[in-house]
Amino acid sequence: MAGNLISETVEAWRSVISLLADRRRSRAATREFWAMGMDECTGILNDIGLSRHEFDDAMRLPYASEDLLSSAMRSAGIDPDSFQSLQAHGFMARTCITCPHRRECHDHLAAFDFESHYQDFCPNSQNFADLLENGPST
After folding, report:
1. CA 95 to chain centroid
2. Which of 26, 56, 113, 126 has a CA between 20 and 30 Å from the CA of residue 98?
3. Gyration radius of the chain over CA positions
4. Which residues lie below 8 Å from residue 15, measured CB to CB, with a gap of 6+?
């Protein structure tokens, strides 16, 4: 029983440390993004259909500084570099950036079992299915 309590305490501390490190990376990524200049940042946000406010809110989500979309696509068997339609990629990026399941996504990617579970939680799962069936030109 004591060993279980110690194990749970250690895991709780690891989670807190991971959360703090993630927040620090997200704040740094946000600063770096806005340092590129308002015109460039606005253009990037327009390409993926996000307002400044939506971007700032999304950067408060877990693992906001990480490109989970590219990793998720690779895990599902899709080459993220093969897109012919930037509009489709932008839509998927917007969906991923604002996704409330980023922690779950990150955890499955880290465990190398995303491809077995993403259909249960990922709002891009239908997009992945379409890409796997029709290719990235859709």
Report:
1. 9
2. 113
3. 17
4. none
